[in-house]
Amino acid sequence: MDLTAPVLTGYGIWAPVAWLAAFVAATIVVYILWKTGESSYKKGTEQGRPYLSGNAEPEKGAVHIRASNLYWGFLQALKGYYDAIVPMHTGVLTDYMVWFVAVTAVLLVIIGVLS
Predict the structure, then answer these.
(1) Which of 13, 52, 54, 79 could form a disulfide with 6 if both were Cys (CB 3.0 to 4.6 A apart)?
(2) Would you say the C-alpha torsion 102, 104, 106, 108 has a positive or negative sign?
(3) What residues pair up with 8 in beta bridges, in sequence order?
(4) What pLDDT, in 10s, does the model give residues 74-99?
(5) How would you class 75 by CB atoms within 10 Å of its CB: exposed for 0-12, middle for 13-18, buried for 19 or more?
């Protein structure tokens, strides 16, 4: 078996030696970039904290944006839908399976009638 010969796969050419050479070249480039990095960085110190223009970092709860704030417009636009569907949300998996089976049955009946 010739390891340097390309293998025709029907979808393209697989050349293991070329891929190995590319991997080695990429590894060398990554190693050179890593060596040019800052060596005085100390993990877990003040260097690892985010810079907020000299201000102290607020508590996580103070900067947390609730999902309801992000989707406010979307929720308001579909308020009628959500008012009807949220009370049906029980969190019980068997309830969802009943809904899934019921909707599937209705869709199959509709498809059967139309075809």
Answers:
(1) 13
(2) negative
(3) 13
(4) 989 999 999 998 888 888 999 999 99
(5) middle
